[in-house]
Amino acid sequence: MKFDKPVPGGPCWAELGTSDLEAAKWFYADLFGWRPETDPREEAGGYTIAHLGDAPVAALSPLYREGQPVAWNVSFAVPYADAAAAAVRAAGGAVLLEPMDVFDHGRFAVVADPGGAVFQLWQPWSFHGAALFNAPGSLGWVELMTRDPDAVIAFYTTVFDWTVHPSESYTQWGIEGADFGGMVEMGARFPHEVPSHWLPYFAVEDVDTTARACTDAGGHLLMEPTSVPDGPRIAVPRDPQGAAFGIYKEAEES
């Protein structure tokens, strides 16, 4: 991700919905060095912000509704949540939770693209999102896993005006040419029951070491550490409660 702060249309926050909040706090604190702080207000529902130093980098929360999957979610910054939700509908997506205020922090909505991948819209007021990107333990890339690439390219370029950099093996999303994420077409290697989804990637000092720490702590690997040709080393773990996420280390410049 080439951004060092949230920008309109770009990813600004990653949020875990988990079936065991206390276990997740310990797991990610050990894995990434996060310092979790749970909002004590009853109406916050256990919402927990993870910090690196004083910088907020991600959130952990209990599951708030029946049937909600254990999963990481990605939020994209927008100037106006209501207008963005209307644009999602007009472009063929769905609004799953209508825009609502979150204290004085901002206004958000939960939406889905035409392929069914769920994401969030965030209109910042006092809270803009992650205060650190690309550093170890912080968000550095987001990846859309989809079964309908043509439909979602049309959707996201309409809703967010993203730039698209396609190649034979991988398509990258950007804002005015600054790439922040990519897209993978879900083929036969993905079980049919796995829905389209957004996957956040967190930077780490060492992918192999972090991957081992994940399995030692009760998680497992969906994708073993792999070096992308002319790119980063990556892996995709799943935490003990079942939420998948990516980890990466940029290739050393020669």
TrEMBL record:
Phylogenetic lineage: Bacteria, Bacillati, Actinomycetota, Actinomycetes, Kitasatosporales
Database matches in InterPro entries: Anthracycline_SecMetBiosynth (IPR052164), Glyas_Bleomycin-R_OHBP_Dase (IPR029068), Glyas_Fos-R_dOase_dom (IPR004360), VOC_core (IPR037523)
Domain VOC: from-to ranges: 10-124, 138-250
Domain of life where this protein originates: Bacteria
Full protein name: VOC family protein
Family matches, as Pfam families: Glyoxalase (PF00903)
Coiled coil: none
